[in-house]
Amino acid sequence: DKTFKFGLRSYLVNIFLFARGHYHRKLR
Q1: DSSP secondary structure string, 1-28?
Q2: Could you tell me the residue range of the domain that residue 26 belongs to?
Q3: Count of domains in the chain?
Q4: What is the largest CA-CA distance in the chain?
Q5: Rounded distance between C-alpha atoms, residue 2 and residue 28, angstroms
Q6: Which pLDDT belongs to residue 14?
Q7: C-alpha separations of 27 from 3, 11, 15, 23 in Å
Q8: d(CA 15, CA 22)
Q9: How far apart are alpha carbons 27 and 14 in whole angstroms?
């Protein structure tokens, strides 16, 4: 299903951005 794939991708992107932001905050 197209909408499911799009939602899943945006969900993964949100997790990636959150993890990256958390990682950068941890470095400082």
Answers
A1: -HHHHHHHHHHHHHHHHHHHHHHHHHH-
A2: 1-28
A3: 1
A4: 41
A5: 40
A6: 96
A7: 36, 25, 18, 6
A8: 10
A9: 20
Q: Which two tokens stand for residue 22?
A: 């958390």
Tokens of 19: 């993890």
| pLDDT at position 10 | 95
Task: Give the separation between CA 15 and CA 1, rounded to whole angstroms.
Answer: 21
Closest residue by Cα to residue 16 from 8, 27, 3, 2: 8
Per the listing, tokens 């799009």 go with 6
* Residue where the block lists tokens 């951005």: 17
Token reading at 2: 């197209």
- The model's pLDDT over 1-28, given as tens digits with 9 standing for 90+, comes to 788 898 999 999 999 999 999 887 887 7
